[in-house]
Amino acid sequence: MNNIGVRFKRTFFFYWIAKLSTTSFMRIFYRVRVKGKENFPEKGAFIMVSNHQSFLDPMLAVMYTWRVLFFLARDTLFKGLFGQLLLKLNTRPVKRGESDLKAMRTMIDILQRGYGTCIYPEGTRTPDGRISEIKPGFLLLARKTKAPVIPFVIEGLHEIWPKTQSKPNLSGRVMVEIGEPVPYEKIQEQGAENFAKWLTDKLRQMQNDARVELGKEPFDYERLS
Description:
acyltransferase, 1-acylglycerol-3-phosphate O-acyltransferase activity, Glycerol-3-phosphate (1)-acyltransferase, transferase, transmembrane, transmembrane helix, alpha/beta
């Protein structure tokens, strides 16, 4: 396997410290509800596909599973001490807006080692809370590793820390919905384009379910079709 530049024991030490700290932060300031925690596999690789509402999204991704997760973040964040910190927290750089084969190879290597990954295929934070169309490029990871895909939806963080704010609000309600793993065989059966469309619809449905749980009006995604 390729060397992914990780000293796992040291990396995992920082990861668990960060997990405990961020979990405490989220529980102190926000009211978070979750559905579907049982859908995380107990072992083996998986690809968690999430909508992207704010910089706080990864905190919620790690809160509800004891499994170690790896992330991708845009390469411009990997500068100086902050960049070193991101690497220690299981985050790897990716060039946004273009095909980054090096980042893909890194994540494939991680999946082949049996770890979970969390990706945000929208590419950037939502400007209005809605989920944009999921592109099929990330399915290269599934094709190369045969890992299942887990739909993961966050609702509420856009209001807490929208793209237009430099700092988060320190109160708010959040809903997390974790879908059932989709085995690679089903993805292969549907084909990449059809599965990406199905996944977009699934994430939007989960988000609207979460919005109703929080007492919000569901988004009218039919207008975007």
